[in-house]
Specification:
By secondary structure, this protein is of the alpha+beta class. The protein has three helices and three strands, in the order βααββα. Strands 1-3-2 form a three-stranded antiparallel sheet.
Length: 62
Amino acid sequence: MTEPWLSADDIAAHLGVTKDTIYGWIAEKGMPAHKLGRLWKFQTSEVDEWVRSGGAASSSGT
């Protein structure tokens, strides 16, 4: 079974943060995301691994 692609709203809800935080993490912290046209799409497994490896760790109070 293939993993579904999630929207920014979906991944924000999954992580319990705002969509603005998600966009900031993409730009500033290298959050794994894939741009399809104007939309950002996410794979839960990639994002979860990124969080576990410390990718979302706050260094500037974000």
